[in-house]
Amino acid sequence: MDIDGIKLEGTNWCQSVTGVVIDKGRVLLARHTYGGGNGKLIIPGGYVNFGETPQDALKREYLEETGVEVRVCDIIGIRFNTKDWYVAFRAEYISGEARSDNNENSEVIWVDVQEALTRDDVPELTKSLISAALKSSDGLVKAEYNGTHHAPNSFYCI
After folding, report:
1. Residue ranges of domains in the chain
2. Model confidence pLDDT, tens digit, residues 38-78
3. DSSP H/E element including 127
4. What whole-number distance in Å separates Cα of residue 32 and Cα of residue 29?
Protein backbone atom coordinates (compact mmCIF):
# COMPACT_ATOMS: atom_id res chain seq x y z
CA MET A 1 0.00 0.00 0.00
CA ASP A 2 1.22 3.46 -0.96
CA ILE A 3 -0.70 6.70 -0.80
CA ASP A 4 1.17 9.52 -2.47
CA GLY A 5 2.73 7.15 -4.98
CA ILE A 6 -0.81 5.73 -5.44
CA LYS A 7 -0.05 1.98 -5.80
CA LEU A 8 -2.87 0.83 -3.54
CA GLU A 9 -4.35 -2.61 -4.01
CA GLY A 10 -7.73 -4.17 -3.41
CA THR A 11 -11.33 -3.18 -3.83
CA ASN A 12 -12.72 0.09 -2.58
CA TRP A 13 -16.17 -1.07 -1.44
CA CYS A 14 -17.32 2.57 -1.13
CA GLN A 15 -16.87 3.49 -4.81
CA SER A 16 -18.69 1.89 -7.74
CA VAL A 17 -19.38 2.64 -11.38
CA THR A 18 -21.69 1.62 -14.18
CA GLY A 19 -22.11 2.57 -17.79
CA VAL A 20 -24.78 2.53 -20.47
CA VAL A 21 -23.56 1.31 -23.85
CA ILE A 22 -25.96 1.84 -26.74
CA ASP A 23 -24.99 0.70 -30.23
CA LYS A 24 -27.21 0.50 -33.32
CA GLY A 25 -30.36 1.11 -31.26
CA ARG A 26 -29.51 -1.63 -28.76
CA VAL A 27 -28.31 -1.46 -25.16
CA LEU A 28 -25.91 -4.00 -23.66
CA LEU A 29 -27.40 -5.69 -20.57
CA ALA A 30 -26.27 -8.50 -18.28
CA ARG A 31 -28.52 -10.89 -16.33
CA HIS A 32 -27.31 -10.55 -12.75
CA THR A 33 -26.79 -13.70 -10.64
CA TYR A 34 -26.85 -12.44 -7.03
CA GLY A 35 -28.30 -9.94 -4.58
CA GLY A 36 -31.26 -7.68 -5.22
CA GLY A 37 -30.64 -7.77 -8.97
CA ASN A 38 -30.62 -11.57 -9.18
CA GLY A 39 -32.31 -12.63 -12.42
CA LYS A 40 -32.66 -9.05 -13.67
CA LEU A 41 -31.12 -7.53 -16.79
CA ILE A 42 -28.94 -4.63 -15.64
CA ILE A 43 -26.23 -2.42 -17.06
CA PRO A 44 -22.80 -3.80 -16.15
CA GLY A 45 -20.54 -2.15 -13.61
CA GLY A 46 -18.75 -2.77 -10.37
CA TYR A 47 -16.43 -1.51 -7.67
CA VAL A 48 -13.41 0.70 -8.16
CA ASN A 49 -10.05 -0.67 -7.04
CA PHE A 50 -7.80 1.50 -4.87
CA GLY A 51 -5.52 3.53 -7.13
CA GLU A 52 -7.86 3.13 -10.12
CA THR A 53 -9.89 5.92 -11.70
CA PRO A 54 -13.65 5.42 -12.10
CA GLN A 55 -13.18 5.49 -15.87
CA ASP A 56 -10.54 2.75 -15.79
CA ALA A 57 -12.73 0.72 -13.42
CA LEU A 58 -15.63 0.90 -15.87
CA LYS A 59 -13.46 -0.23 -18.79
CA ARG A 60 -12.12 -3.13 -16.69
CA GLU A 61 -15.56 -4.17 -15.42
CA TYR A 62 -17.07 -4.18 -18.92
CA LEU A 63 -14.24 -6.27 -20.32
CA GLU A 64 -14.32 -8.73 -17.38
CA GLU A 65 -18.10 -9.10 -17.23
CA THR A 66 -19.09 -8.85 -20.91
CA GLY A 67 -16.04 -9.31 -23.13
CA VAL A 68 -16.76 -5.87 -24.61
CA GLU A 69 -14.26 -3.02 -24.78
CA VAL A 70 -15.78 0.43 -24.20
CA ARG A 71 -14.75 4.07 -24.34
CA VAL A 72 -16.00 6.03 -21.33
CA CYS A 73 -17.78 9.27 -22.24
CA ASP A 74 -19.71 11.63 -19.98
CA ILE A 75 -21.36 11.22 -16.59
CA ILE A 76 -25.12 10.72 -16.79
CA GLY A 77 -25.93 10.04 -13.14
CA ILE A 78 -24.56 9.99 -9.62
CA ARG A 79 -25.95 8.29 -6.52
CA PHE A 80 -24.35 8.88 -3.15
CA ASN A 81 -25.16 8.54 0.52
CA THR A 82 -23.23 8.54 3.79
CA LYS A 83 -21.59 5.14 3.02
CA ASP A 84 -20.67 5.17 -0.65
CA TRP A 85 -21.06 6.59 -4.13
CA TYR A 86 -22.02 5.25 -7.54
CA VAL A 87 -21.28 7.07 -10.81
CA ALA A 88 -23.03 6.22 -14.08
CA PHE A 89 -21.37 7.02 -17.40
CA ARG A 90 -22.47 6.99 -21.00
CA ALA A 91 -19.98 4.72 -22.81
CA GLU A 92 -19.39 3.75 -26.42
CA TYR A 93 -18.92 0.27 -27.84
CA ILE A 94 -15.41 -0.21 -29.27
CA SER A 95 -15.06 -3.95 -29.90
CA GLY A 96 -15.69 -7.46 -28.63
CA GLU A 97 -18.35 -10.12 -28.68
CA ALA A 98 -20.89 -9.91 -25.86
CA ARG A 99 -20.57 -12.96 -23.61
CA SER A 100 -21.35 -13.94 -20.03
CA ASP A 101 -18.61 -14.15 -17.42
CA ASN A 102 -20.53 -17.14 -15.96
CA ASN A 103 -20.07 -15.68 -12.51
CA GLU A 104 -21.66 -12.29 -11.87
CA ASN A 105 -24.03 -12.75 -14.80
CA SER A 106 -25.64 -15.67 -16.58
CA GLU A 107 -26.05 -13.95 -19.94
CA VAL A 108 -25.02 -10.76 -21.70
CA ILE A 109 -27.26 -9.60 -24.53
CA TRP A 110 -27.94 -6.65 -26.78
CA VAL A 111 -31.56 -5.56 -26.32
CA ASP A 112 -33.50 -3.08 -28.44
CA VAL A 113 -33.54 0.15 -26.39
CA GLN A 114 -37.31 0.61 -26.54
CA GLU A 115 -37.87 -3.02 -25.54
CA ALA A 116 -35.46 -2.64 -22.59
CA LEU A 117 -37.47 0.34 -21.33
CA THR A 118 -40.64 -1.78 -21.15
CA ARG A 119 -39.37 -5.18 -19.97
CA ASP A 120 -40.39 -6.39 -16.51
CA ASP A 121 -36.96 -7.97 -15.93
CA VAL A 122 -35.16 -4.60 -16.33
CA PRO A 123 -35.09 -2.69 -13.01
CA GLU A 124 -36.22 0.93 -12.78
CA LEU A 125 -32.70 2.24 -12.07
CA THR A 126 -31.42 0.62 -15.27
CA LYS A 127 -34.38 2.06 -17.21
CA SER A 128 -33.70 5.53 -15.75
CA LEU A 129 -30.03 5.35 -16.72
CA ILE A 130 -30.86 4.14 -20.25
CA SER A 131 -33.25 7.09 -20.58
CA ALA A 132 -30.56 9.47 -19.33
CA ALA A 133 -28.07 8.07 -21.86
CA LEU A 134 -30.56 8.70 -24.67
CA LYS A 135 -30.88 12.41 -23.91
CA SER A 136 -29.13 14.67 -26.40
CA SER A 137 -27.31 16.55 -23.63
CA ASP A 138 -23.63 15.92 -23.21
CA GLY A 139 -24.23 15.37 -19.50
CA LEU A 140 -21.37 16.32 -17.25
CA VAL A 141 -18.20 16.39 -19.32
CA LYS A 142 -14.57 16.23 -18.33
CA ALA A 143 -13.04 19.69 -18.02
CA GLU A 144 -9.46 20.84 -17.66
CA TYR A 145 -8.27 20.85 -14.07
CA ASN A 146 -4.77 20.89 -12.69
CA GLY A 147 -5.03 19.64 -9.14
CA THR A 148 -2.39 19.97 -6.49
CA HIS A 149 -2.54 16.30 -5.45
CA HIS A 150 -0.28 13.62 -6.89
CA ALA A 151 -3.27 11.38 -7.49
CA PRO A 152 -5.06 11.44 -10.87
CA ASN A 153 -7.68 14.18 -10.90
CA SER A 154 -10.92 14.45 -12.83
CA PHE A 155 -13.30 17.37 -12.86
CA TYR A 156 -16.68 17.16 -14.57
CA CYS A 157 -19.09 20.03 -15.14
CA ILE A 158 -21.84 21.19 -17.48
Report:
1. 11-157
2. 999 999 999 999 999 999 999 999 999 999 999 999 999 99
3. helix 124-134
4. 9
